């Protein structure tokens, strides 16, 4: 999307209609999006699903965390703590806690929100398990 001039123009037009943008992307795309979003401070952006971390791989975690910190540095970005199964289909409260702690540390609780993403989450857990994890 970032390579498309038409998409970039369309994104910029969001400021004219006073709406927010939900960003769902891979962890490798977080930093490039942060660079792009820094040029659009008037458009609120909600990063979905913890920024799509992947459990277990140290290098991947570094890439994810760098992107999270770059996005959190922008005052117009917010984090939706949701999509826990995207981090790993066998996630648990203890495996997801460090990711949530890092997101809360970066964005602060005032710029975070919860979401269930339950239609997808029910493939790996119950509704009760997701909310109990929160």
Automatic annotation (TrEMBL):
Domain Amidohydrolase-related residue range list: 6-132
Keyword Hydrolase: yes
Organism: Ruegeria halocynthiae
Entry similarity comment: Belongs to the metallo-dependent hydrolases superfamily.
GO function terms (MF aspect): hydrolase activity
SUPFAM superfamilies: Metallo-dependent hydrolases (SSF51556)
Record protein name field: Amidohydrolase
Classification via InterPro entries: Amidohydro-rel, Metal_Hydrolase, Metallo-dep_Lactonases
């Amino acid at each position: 999307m970032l390579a498309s001039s038409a998409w970039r123009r369309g994104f910029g037009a969001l400021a004219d209609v006073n709406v927010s943008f939900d960003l769902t992307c891979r962890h490798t795309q977080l930093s490039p999006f942060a660079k792009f979003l820094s040029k659009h401070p008037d458009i609120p952006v909600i990063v979905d699903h913890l920024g799509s971390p992947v459990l277990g791989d140290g290098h991947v975690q570094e890439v994810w965390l760098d992107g999270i910190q770059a996005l959190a540095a922008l005052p117009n970005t917010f984090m939706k703590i949701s999509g826990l199964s995207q981090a790993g289909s066998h996630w648990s409260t203890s495996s997801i806690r460090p990711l949530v702690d890092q997101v809360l540390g970066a964005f602060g609780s005032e710029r975070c929100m919860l979401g269930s993403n339950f239609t997808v989450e029910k493939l790996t857990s119950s509704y009760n398990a997701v909310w109990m994890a929160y």
